[in-house]
Design a protein that fits this description.
9 helices; globular; DUF4386 family protein; transmembrane; single chain; about 190 residues; membrane; transmembrane helix; mainly alpha
Length: about 190
């Protein structure tokens, strides 16, 4: 199980890099450019697939709440990948209507709540280093600051990539708790 989690950690790093790639793409070619959307699409797929790696090392400490946070985040990334593919492939958002507006709002709220919940349970579990949690805080704060809209993806990718780095290098704050969680997952 430790090897599987480490390989998923590599995917988390790649997802973070892809998400970070959205920022220079948006700054150079503009928001919703093909380059930015391609980075976002790849990042969303990789994040949806690998988010479970953020839960497994702290599973015993976070329990069902941690699983719910990761599940919401992964599900949101799946929906976001569909939205980004649609814009990338067809050059426009889906026809605005009740369904598109409601699902868009629910995904946005869900992703934000899932990310906030993931940051909280990660902080409380004390398995990942504090700097991993602080990067989540920076990411969330950057979302609400006017003028940093294009930079949000950079901080989002950095927070994910940092957790992936911790997983791959096993530089957990509480190595015993991580080892227990991974042994239970086996």
């Amino acid at each position: 199980m430790q090897k599987v989690v480490k390989w998923l950690g590599v995917v988390v790093i790649l997802a973070g890099i892809a998400r970070m790639g959205m920022t220079p793409s948006a700054l150079i070619w503009g928001g919703d450019s093909h380059q930015e959307l391609l980075c976002g699409y790849v990042a969303a797929i990789l994040m949806a697939f690998s988010s479970i790696a953020l839960y497994l090392p702290q599973m015993k400490e976070t329990g069902k709440l941690g699983f719910a946070a990761v599940f919401i985040t992964a599900a949101g990334n799946i929906v976001i990948s569909g939205q980004q593919y649609g814009i990338w492939a067809y050059g426009a958002y889906a026809e605005k209507g009740l369904f598109v507006n409601v699902t868009g709002a629910l995904v946005g709220i869900g992703m934000m709540l899932g990310t906030i919940l993931l940051g909280i349970v990660t902080f409380r579990a004390k398995v990942f280093p504090l700097w991993n949690v602080l990067l989540f805080v920076v990411m969330l704060v950057s979302f609400g600051i006017p003028g940093l809209e294009s930079w949000f993806a950079l901080f989002w990718g950095l927070a994910y990539g940092a957790m992936g780095y911790t997983i791959v290098t096993s530089r957990y704050r509480n190595k015993e708790a991580a080892a227990k969680s991974l042994s239970v997952a086996s």
